[in-house]
Amino acid sequence: MVTFFTVLFWLLLFLIITFNLFVIISHGMLIGVYPYVMVVTLVFGVLLLVIRFVKWTLLIKIATLLMAVVFILSLYTFYQIWRNTRLLNGYISKRSSYMNEIEQLLKNEDVTRGSFSKQEEGIISLIEANTGIPVTYHNQGEYLNGGGETIDAMIEAMDKAQHHIHVEFFIMRDDSIGNKFKDILIKKAQEGVSVRVIYDGLGSRKLKKNYVGELKKEGVDVRAYDGYIDSLLKGKLNHRNHRKIVVVDGKVGFVGGFNIGDEYLGRDENIGYWKDLQVQLEGDVVHSMQMVFLGDWYYVTDEKILEEEYFPSNHGITNYMPAQMVTSGFDTYWSEISQFYFAMITSAEDRVYIGTPYLVLNDSMLKALQVAALKGVDVRLIIPKKPDLFIVGWANESYFEKLLKSKVKIYQYDRGFLHAKVFLVDDRIVSVGTANFNTRSLFLDYEVNAVIYDKGMAGKLLEEFQLYERESQQVTYEDEMKKGLLNKVKGMLGKIIIPLA
């Protein structure tokens, strides 16, 4: 038995090394299984060392039994992941069926197509083909680039709610901001407004039971999206709901990088100043945001909400600003946001500006950036100089040499922690949302971005990028070449471990 597990350990270690010596393969099953293989390999390694060096018979038997249990659980998990990647778990079929029912409510909305460039038409068609979410036209929006500004805008909008408030976050904390948020939700529930809240079961694992209990006691319907047990049984422990959405009365919506916690206001001493970006939208696109929330609500409750009052046509927005939502998830037909990001980069003619806290690229995304820069597109990446986890920084910097050599410009934000997830392409298309430019967001987690086709919003985002640059240090190819072997080792370690984070 011990010999079997020893051979298995070396086989798993070989697979991990092979996986990272070449490229991060974007096949759903491989990426889904990889973090589990890492953990199992580590557990086996520790237990085999115990067996090798500890001569206590009982401890050897316990270690062997533990390896057997881990092996059996791993086989079950790998089977579930295989079912998920093959779309055999019913997730996408149930969700699609429900989304079709919702679309019937919206079929009478104005769908007169505007005038778009060939590039925009391609992006719009790709998103609709992948997600079923069409572009909308009568919208208006504004960026919220500060934690205090963002939370104040959300609370102000919720305070005006008359019918419903829908809230979905990856992280909710029982701290100063969390309690401020809780108070407004309770207040509106007491006024008779329907309040529904989804939080990720692992992302919000530190959320106290009495926080949730108080919300429920006052009439707020609060649900966790896959806690530990559900995640294990479904093979989704490593596939989190990373979406961050607020929808008020089906008329006002918020989406971006902001979670509910004091660190998002720069109150965490370890992280310091926190720079994020949220977009507040009004108009038809909020109906698409509503669809995303209700799809997740259906997943956690089996409750279908199909009343027309959740999709009001009297939002009063006549401004022309085309906008579209794009979503992605582990067990969907495509890696939708990955395809969207790839299409944005490869279709760019003048510029591609990307802000992301995490930079972990597969081979195709790396080549897309390189080719765009080499053919003359102004490609710029802005990432934090000081990440929230040091090994994230190792992973980020492991791509610098190849990117800089191909004329991609890289800036490290030096004022604090840059958490914004933003794309700007050719002064016309912008994306603001929850999806980072890394393996986890593009292939493992459930994400949502707002895509806006508007020169005015693009101009404002360009100004934001220019502010980021002024507060950043540019990395040059010469600087990168001065780094020694130790940095290359750090980069390799970062890429090996980061899919777990």
TrEMBL record:
Record-given protein name: Cardiolipin synthase
Residue ranges of every copy of the PLD phosphodiesterase domain listed in the record: 237-264, 414-441
Pfam families in the cross-refs: PLDc_2
GO MF terms held by the record: transferase activity
Keyword annotations from UniProtKB, A to Z: Cell membrane, Membrane, Repeat, Transferase, Transmembrane, Transmembrane helix
Membrane-spanning ranges: 7-27, 33-51, 58-79
Enzyme Commission number, as recorded: 2.7.8.-
Biological source species: Alkaliphilus hydrothermalis
Localization in the cell: Cell membrane
NCBIfam families, alphabetized: bac_cardiolipin
PANTHER family per UniProt: CARDIOLIPIN SYNTHASE, PHOSPHOLIPASE D
Chief location: membrane
InterPro entries named among the record's database cross-references: Cardiolipin_synthase, PLD-like_dom, PLipase_D/transphosphatidylase
